[in-house]
Amino acid sequence: MQSNINTTKSKTIYVPRINDELNDFFSMALIWKQATVNNDNIIFDFTDCAFLRPNAVVFLGGITRLIQASGRTVHLSLSTMQQHVKMNLLQNGFASMMGAETEPWQGNSIPYREYVEPNEDIVLKYLTDDWLGRGWINVSKNLKNEIAGRMWEIFANAFEHSLSEIGLVCCGQYFKNNKELVLAVADFGVGIPSNVRAFNAQEDIEPKDAMKWAFTKGNTTSKTAWPRGVGLDLLKEFVRLSKGSLAIYSHGGYAYIDEDSELYDNHSAFFGCTVVQVTLRCDDNYYCLSTELDSAQYF
Description:
Elements: E1 10-14, H1 24-36, E2 41-45, H2 54-69, E3 74-76, H3 83-91, H4 94-97, E4 109-115, H5 120-131, H6 141-161, E5 168-175, E6 180-187, H7 192-200, H8 207-214, H9 232-241, E7 245-250, E8 253-258, E9 262-266, E10 274-281, H10 293-296
Parallel strand pairs: 1-2, 2-3
Antiparallel strand pairs: 4-5, 5-6, 6-10, 7-8, 7-10, 8-9
Helix pairs in contact: 1-2, 5-6, 6-9, 7-8
């Protein structure tokens, strides 16, 4: 997978196993530092990579586009990948987006997508059909539309505030053994802490406090007529109800929400990216809006 070669020298970056624990953000930060420290072309080597969580896939996709936007080339070495890692990136379309000839196919992946401009209809179709509409989690049509609408707010916020020259990237996966449905979104803009500081005209706001402010009901830095962001309450409620989690890293700020807790903290591994990952537990329960409870008994 390779773009046009230029005369700049090449640097090989070895991609390790990347999951979604806090320590895995240090791996992303190291890759970020290696990829942005000079003007080298980049070769990503996956010899030591046994697993890539969706948050890692969108990070690699975004940083690849960022490097290319600077006029450099990127080569993602398929030949160094373990077979199961390669098959996942071929299946979800990441590999073909990066130049591989193999076409993606429908399996247990939520397709890899890149959005340079906001298009609500296209994104909502992706969320309702490819994320929530594959039968992996049992939700009513109304709740599915509501959750997709809340996720669209994350996309819309990124388009409005991130100032990212490459837009945003997303993908996901259904992990059958763990009964988890994961969706990740990333942008390489200015980040949530920076936006909150600018809006409040306070440069000394710590990343953790900026993250908490951004997720407080009623707070928004949106310039639109309606308060974008307040809908995250329903997304957080559903994540907790399904025993899942919502994790967000942005420029040194970290937020994690699950069934039992809501954490906002600083993270010492800084890199210029915002990553949002939603994990839903796929059990046998049927989920619907409270207003649908009277009819839910018939399902």
